[in-house]
## 1
Amino acid sequence: MINFTKMHGLGNDFVVIDAIGQDINLTAEQVHFIADRHFGVGCDQLLLVERPVRENADFKYRIFNADGGEVAQCGNGARCFARFVREKKLTAKDEVTVDTNAGQLLLRFIDGGLITVNMGVPKHAPEQIPLLMKDEAVQYSLEYDGGIVSFSALSMGNPHAVIQVEDVVSAPLETVGPWLEKHPVFSERVNVGFMQVVNRQRIKLRVYERGAAETLACGSGACAAVVAGIEQGLLDSNVSVGLPGGDLLIEWAGRGQPVFMSGPAVSVYEGQIRI
Ligand SMILES: N[C@H](CCC[C@H](N)C(=O)O)C(=O)O
C-alpha cells in the first residue's frame, strides 16, 4: 500500500507521495495506473517528494505526467509540494529550496495562504526545437490544415508553445493542441498555451498540456505565456493570468531575469492505493 495526498493548484490536480518515509519505486505504467480517473486515483500529474540531491536544498521533488512520462517542471505542482512538506511537518521553513530535474526552485509562503515560486530564467529557444532554431527568434510559424499557426516557443524548464488568440473560449485547443503537442519539431513534445490578451496587466489562458491534455490550470504555462506577451510588447511586468481553474500572478522583469509565480495550493484528502 502507498500513502498519498490528493492536492490541486487551481484545479490542476496531483497525487503527492512522500518517498522519504516510504520506499517508492514506480514504473511509468504504475504512474499511468495511479493517474487513471477510472481505474486508479486520478490526477494530471504525480509528484514524488525525495531527499535533496544538493547540500543547499531541503528536498528534491520529481514530476510525472498522467501518461507516465517524467518531466522537469510543474508550477502548480511546486506550490502543492511546498504545502505538502509543511503540512506533513517535513519542514517548518517559510522558504524552501527544492532540487528538480530542471534545477533548483525557491518556494516562499506569503500572506493569504499563497505560495510564491521563483520559476527560474526562461530560455527562449529551448533545445527541444532544433529544427526551428533561429537567431533567438521567439516567434515561429507552421502550416496547419491549409493555414498557418504562429507561436512563441520557450522553456520554463519544460517546453512551451504559446499561441495568441482573440478568445480562449473558442480557441482550437481540441485540434491544434494535440497536433502541436506531438509535432516532430518538438523532439520532446510540447505544452501548448492559448493566450487572450485582455489588457497589459491581464490575460486569459487555456493550456493543452504535454502528457495530460487540457488541464484547469498550468503554472509553467502561465509563466511562458506572460514571457511571450512581454517579449512581444503586449504586457507589463506584473500580469494576472485567468485560467479556467482560477488566477495566478506572474511577474517577470525581462530577459535574464527569473519569473515569479504566486498562487494557492490545496490538500483535498489523504488516501492509500494498492499497487
Ligand atoms: N505537462 C507539463 C508538466 C506539468 C506542468 C503543469 N501542470 C504546471 O503547472 O506547470 C510538461 O509535460 O512539461
## 2
Amino acid sequence: MIKVIAVKNAEELAQKAYEKIVSVMESKNEVTLGLATGGSPLGIYALMRENKPATSHVTTINLDEYIGLEPTHDQSYRYFMNDQLFNHLPFKATYVPDGIAADLQKACGDYEAIIAANPVDLQLLGIGENGHIAFNEPGTSFDSPTQVTGLTESTINANSRYFEKKEDVPTSAITMGIGSIMKAKEILLIASGEKKAEAIKQMLEGNVTEACPATALQHHANVTVIADEAALSLCQDKKEAQAV
Ligand SMILES: O=P(O)(O)OC[C@H]1O[C@](O)(CO)[C@@H](O)[C@@H]1O
C-alpha cells in the first residue's frame, strides 16, 4: 500500500518530508536513515541545516554514487552530501558508495554488508523521469543488490544540468539495488514538478513491472509518497490523494 500526501509545491513538500524525517530520528536511540541526492531533497536538507535537529545518534546510508568521480569532485554524491548536510550536522556515521574503488564488485558487497549491519529505518527516495529509483534504471531486477549499473540516455540528459557539458556526466554508477531499497522498514518518496508526473502515475496506478522500477514500491508494506500538484497532475485519483 502506498499512502499519498498531496502538497501544493516544493516548499510544502520539503516541510512535510522534514517533519517525517525528524519524527523517525526522534523515535529511537539509534536510527539509520537512507538518504538520496539530486534536486528533490535539497529543500529538506536546507531545513535540516536551518533547524539543526539532533543527529549524533543517526547513521546515514546513501543510495548511489557515480563511478569515476573522486569524493572531492563537486558533482560526486559524496561531495553533495558533505556540502548539503554532513558538514553542517554531526552524524554518527555516513556511508556513500565508493565510486572510485579499485575493485567495484567488492565495494558493492561491502556496501550490502553495511546495509545489513545498519537496517534502514526510513529510506528517502527521489524518482527519475523514467521511473528509476536510485540509479536502478528500467529493466533492473526487483531482487537486485548493490551493483554497478549503466545510466540511460534519459538519466544522463536529466543530470547533465549539473555538469558543464553532457559529455562530462559519468555513464555508470554504483547503486543500492531495488532489493536493497525494499529492505528498508519504511520508505518516503518525494516528487515535485510536471516532469515527474508520468513516472508518478506509473508508480501509483500502473502495473508492477521492471519497466518502471518505482512500481516495485507497490509491494512494500510501508511507503509514503509526498508529491506536489504538478507531479500528481496525471493521476486519476489525485482528488482522493489530496484529501489524505
Ligand atoms: O531529484 P532529481 O534531481 O529530479 O533526481 C531524481 C533521482 O535521480 C537521481 O538523481 C539519479 O539520477 C536520484 O539520485 C534521484 O533520486
## 3
Amino acid sequence: MIRYLKTAAAAATTAEADRQVRSTVETIIESIIKRGDDAVHELSQRFDNYDRTDFRLSESEIADCVAAVGEEALDDIRFAQTQVRNFAQHQRAALTDIEVETLPGIVLGHKNIPVNAVGCYVPGGKYPLLASAHMSVVTARVAGVKRIITAAPPFEGRPAQAIVAAQHLAGADEIYCLGGVQAVAAMALGTASIGKVDMIVGPGNAYVAEAKRQLFGTIGIDLPAGPTETLVIADDSVDAELCATDLLGQAEHGPTSPAILLTNSEPLARATIAAVEHLLTILPTAAIAARSWADFGQVIVCDTLEEMLATADAIASEHVQVMTADPDWFLERMTNYGALFLGPRTNVAFGDKVIGTNHTLPTKGAARFTGGLWVGKFLKTVTYQRVLTNEASAMIGEYCSRLCLLEGFAGHAEQANIRVRRYGGRNVPYAEAASRR
Ligand SMILES: NC(=O)c1ccc[n+]([C@@H]2O[C@H](COP(=O)([O-])OP(=O)(O)OC[C@H]3O[C@@H](n4cnc5c(N)ncnc54)[C@H](O)[C@@H]3O)[C@@H](O)[C@H]2O)c1
Ligand SMILES: [Zn+2]
C-alpha cells in the first residue's frame, strides 16, 4: 500500500502557471523576431534591470572577472572542469563511427559529426550557477563543436564574475551578459550583434526551458531542463537528518522545486518531516526551500521495494538519490530518471558541482524519453552508404524496384531499374509489379 504522509499543496495551480509562462515566452520571442537587438535591450532592462551597448564581454572585462575570482576559487573551478572533461572524454570514446558490409558489396556506415555552433545558457537569476558553464561548454568542446557561445544573466547588476571565469576557463568563444528568454532567443535566432547558433543547451528556470521548447525546430536543443527536482529513496539504513539535508539541498534551487522522500519506513518518514522543519529554522536559504517544500514537497511511504520502484519510475525525477541497504537493486531495475546517486556516500550536490557527471538533466517527466546533457547530444549520428560491385547494385536494385512499385512509386522504381538494366539484373515491368499492390 502507498501512503502520502505529505502531499504537494501547489500541484493544482501549476497548469495555469505553465500557460502564463507559455504566453509570456511567445510574446518575448515574437518581439525579438520583429525588433532584434532593440527588443533584447528593452527586455534585459525590464527583466534584469541591466543594459549596455554590447552584451558581449570584452577581453579585458573577462580578464577582470577572472582576476577578481581569486586563485583558490579558480583552482576549484579547474578541478571541476577537469572531472567533467575527463568523463565526457570517456563517453566520447564509447561512441564510435562504424562502417560494415551488410551484404556482399553493400557497405553502410555512420559517422558522429559535431554540431557546428552551439549556444550554452548558464542560469544566474537566483544563484550564479557557474557549474552549468562546465556542463555545457566543456562538454561541447570535447564533442568538437567549432563555435561555442555562452550567455548568463547579470548578477547584482553586473556580469557574474565566477560564471564568467568558468565560461572562459571552459573555453567559450564568445561570452554574453544576457539572461532569460532574450538570451536564448537572441542566440537561437541571431540579431545584428549576435551570430545565430544551430543548437541551444543548458538548464534554466521555467521561462528559459519554455523558450528552448518553443524554439526547437528552428534550432536543436539538448533536452527539457527546467526547475530542479529531487527524489530521495531511503530505508532505515539511513537516518532522517541525512534525508532531510538531501531534500532541502535541492529544494533551495527555487520555489517550484519538488523534493520527494520515498521510503518503506514510516518512522523514517515521520522523523524526516520533523528534521526538515528543524533544518528550515537554520538553513540560510530557508526562505526559498520552505516554499518549495510546502508547495511541492512530498513524503510517500510504501510497503515493498516493488512499490517504491513503480512509484519512482512514475515520478521520473531529474535526480534520484538511493540510500537503501542495496542501492544497486534500483540501478538494475529503474527506467525513468535523469541521474542516479547510489548510496549514502554520494549525493546530488556532488553531481551538481564537481564529480564529473553532467548536471543538466531532464525535468517534468522528460526522463521518460531522454537522459541528460552529454557529449553525444552535441553529435549528429549521420549515415552513408556505397555499393561496391555491379552485382550488388543489380541485386538490391531488383528488390528496390519491386518494393517501390508496391507503393506506386514509378519514379523511385526507375531509379532502381536504370541500375538493374546497366548492371545486368532482371528489370520488373511496371504492370507486373503494379498488379501485386
Ligand atoms: N534541470 C537542470 O538540469 C537544472 C540544473 C541546474 C539548475 N536548474 C534550474 O535552473 C533554474 C535557474 O533559475 P534562475 O531563475 O535562478 O535563473 P535563470 O538564469 O534560469 O533565469 C533568470 C532569467 O529569467 C528571466 N525572468 C525572470 N522572471 C521572468 C518573468 N516573469 N518573465 C520573463 N522572464 C523572466 C530573466 O530574464 C532572468 O534573466 C532553477 O530553477 C534551477 O532549478 C536546472
Ligand atoms: Zn542542485
## 4
Amino acid sequence: MNFARVIVDVASQNTDRPFDYKIPEKFQGVVQPGIRVIVPFGPRKIMGYVVGLTDESSFSKVKNISDCLDVTPALTEELLQLGKWLSHQTLSYYISCLQVMLPQIMKAKYRKEIWKMTDEPLDSELEQVFDGRAVMEYEEFEKSNVSIHQLRKHIQDGEVDVHYEVKSRETKKVTRVIEPGVDEFTLIETLEDLSKQAVKQRRIVEYFTEHKEPIPKKQLLETLSTTSASLKPLIDRGVLKEFQQEIFRDPYENHHFERTKPFALTEEQAAAIEPILNTIQKRSHDVFLLHGVTGSGKTEVYLQSIQQVLNEGKEAIMLVPEIALTPQMVERFKGRFGSKVAVLHSALSAGEKYDEWRKIQRKEVQVVVGARSAIFAPFTKLGLIIIDEEHETSYKQEDRTRYHARDVAIERAKNHQCPVVLGSATPALETYARAIKGNYQLLSLKKRMNNAKMPDVELVDMREELHSGNRSMFSLVLKEKLEDRLAKGEQAVLFLNRRGFSTFVMCRDCGHVMECPHCDIALTYHRRQERLKCHYCSYEEAVPQKCPECESETIRYFGTGTQKVEEVLEQLIPDARVLRMDVDTTRRKGAHERILNQFGNKQADILLGTQMIAKGLDFGNVTLVGVLAADSLLNLPDFRAAEKTFQLITQVSGRAGRHEKPGEVIVQTYTPEHYSIELASTYDFEAFFNEEMKLRKAFNYPPYYFLTLFTISHPNQLKVQEVTQKIVQFMKQNLSEQSYVLGPTPSALTRINNRYRYQCMVKYKKEPEQRKLVQRILHYYEEEMKQENGLQITVDFQPYQLM
Ligand SMILES: Nc1ncnc2c1ncn2[C@@H]1O[C@H](COP(=O)(O)OP(=O)(O)OP(=O)(O)O)[C@@H](O)[C@H]1O
Ligand SMILES: [Zn+2]
Ligand SMILES: [Zn+2]
C-alpha cells in the first residue's frame, strides 16, 4: 500500500474527510489503520489518524507522512468504525469522535515557533526579540510590540519562517531491569569459575540461580547491597542481561485487596443471571435490564457474569457513574479479579489514566471498571458490557461529542455480538418502557439480600413543622432519631441535595438578590472566603455590607449548604461526631477514601453529604437515613424533575438497613403530596412509572417523543432571537406535520458569560431526514460560527440538560 488516508487534527467542516498521504519507504508496514501520524498540512505540521490504506490516490500532488507516533495502533478497526457511527449520531466531526475515545494525554500538543532564516540582522524590532537566537516561541513575538504586518513582511522576504511543532504528550515511565542471560546450568558453572574474592559478583550470580524473573536494577542492587560496578562485568560477559522495561503507574499499588469468592446465588439471583450466562455462551447480542431493588445483590450478578466472560477467554467493560466509583466499589472488582482489572476514572492523574489504558491495549487486563469514557476501552474480544445505575445522567457527555454511553454500549455489543446488561433500582423511564415492550429483556430482583426489609420511610411535612414553631432545618423526629442512633452506637447518613440548590444572598428589606453581572443567575455564597461567586463564569466579588439597591444592612444568606448543616448539627446534637463529604472536602486525592474509611471504622456517627453519598455505600451499621430537602429538585425547569426526585430518594433510602440491622428513613419535604415523593416512600416503582408515563404522553415528552434541542448563543440578544427564529421556521417548513417545533424561547439560563441564550426544541416520532436538515443549518452559519465570540449553535439529539 502506497497511500494512507488520514483524518487530520483540525475540527472543521472542510477538513471533515480523509486526506491522502504518501507512505515513505521507511514507514512501509508501520503505517496501518489506527496509528497516529504527523503530516504536513498547509504551512504547518499536525497530527492525524490513519483510517485506511490504499494503493492509488486520485490526487496528483500528495505529500509524504512526516512521522509516526505509534507502533501499535492507538485505535482498533472496530473503534475507527465506531467513530464514524458516533460522528453520524451526534453530528460531530470525525476527528472529535476519534479523540473522545482516547486518553486526553494522547492528543497532540502544538508549539508555534519563529525561525530566523538569515544571518543578517533584521531591519526591525524583531531583531531585539530574537536577541541573538535562531529560534523563539511565537508567544514571545505576540508579547512584543512588533506588528503582525512587520512579521508578515519578513516572512515574504524569506528572512523568517513560522514553524509548527507537534509534540506527543504521553510519557511512558521506564526502568532498567536485569535478568539472567544464560540458563541455570551456565549460571552455576559461572559461579564455580568466579574467584573467591569476587564476593559481590558471586552474590549476584547466586541470586539469579534462584530467581529467574527480571528484577528492577535498583531493587537488585539494594537487595544485595552491591553496586553497578559488580554488575557490569557479568553483563559484559552476557551472563546477565540489562534492558529497559516500561513500568506502570499503578494508582492502587499500595492497596491490599482481600480476595473474595463468589457467593452461592439466591434463587432470584440465579434466575436473573441464567439468561445472561446463556447469551454469553451463545456469543449473541441482547440487551438486558436488571431491575433490582437497592441491596438486592445486583453487583454479585455482575461479578459472576464477568467471571463467565473470563472463562470464555473474553473481555468485559463495567461502567459505574463517576460518583459511585468509590474505593469500596473498586475493591469489589479487584477483590474478585485481582490484577485482571484496570480502573479508569477522573480522579486519576493523566499519566495514571494513560497507564491503565495501556494495560488494556497491551492485553494485560481483561476487565475495565470505569466511568463514562471507559466504554471506549480498546478491547478486541468483548464478551459483555455492564452499565450499573443505568439511569444516571452522567452517562451522557455534555460537550463536544454529545454521546450517551448506553447507546455506544449497544452499538459496540452489536459489533462484538455480546450482551449488554443495564442495571438499576430505578431505571430511566425510556429504558423501562423498552423493557416492557420487549425490546430489552427484563430481569427482576424484588427482594433484598437475606430477605431484609426495605427500610420504612416516613415523610415529614416541613410546613407543619414551621407552623408548630420549629424554624430549624431539622424536624423534631429527625433530631430524636439521630439521638436515638447515637445512644445505640449505630450510624446515620444525612443527605442534602445541592443540585439546583445553593446559598444565595438576599436583602430582607427590598428582596434584591445578588446576581452575576455577566450571567442571569444568583451568586453563590462561599463562607470560607467570605465571597460571592458565579458558578457559570469565574466572576466573584466580596460580600457587600449594604444592599446595593436600597442601602439596607439586612443582608441575609439563604439556602442550605452542607457547611451550614454541619454547623447547625453541631449545636443541635453537640455529642455527635460528624463527617462531611462534598466537593469541598473531597478535593484532595484520597480524601474520598479516607472519609469513607473513617465512617466504616465507626470513627463518626453521622455522614453528611451530597449526591456523592447517594450511591454504592454498603455499611451494615447504618440504620438511619435522613433526606433534608427532598423537593429541591422538583422546582427545576426540567421535564425529568419528578423522575430525578424519585430516583434520588430511592437511592438514598437504599443506604439504610442493608445487612442484619433494620433501617429507617426520614424524608423532609414541603410537598409530601407530590406523587414522586409519595411513591418513593413506598418503593412503588411501577406506580411511579405509570403515573409519570401519563404525563409524558400528555405533554409529548420521551419516551413517547424524541427530542432535539438547539441552543443558540451570541453577545447580542437581537441576533440570537433572529437566528433562533430562522431555525424554528426552517425546521417547521421541512419537518413532517406530526412533529412539534417549539421556540424561540429564552433558555432557563438566559445569559452566561455575557452571551444570550435561546432555544428551539423539536419533538418528533420519526424524522429520518432530520440530521441532514441540521447539517444544512450548521453549514449555513458556518462562517459566523468561526468568528471569535461570534455565533454559537449547539444541537443535542438526546438532551438531558434543558437549561
Ligand atoms: N448471594 C449472596 N449471598 C450472600 N450475600 C450476598 C449475595 N449477593 C450479594 N450479597 C451481599 O449483599 C449486599 C448487597 O448486595 P449488592 O451491594 O450487590 O446489592 P446491589 O443491588 O448492587 O445494591 P445497590 O443497588 O443498593 O448498590 C452486599 O453486601 C453483598 O456482598
Ligand atoms: Zn435592598
Ligand atoms: Zn457569571
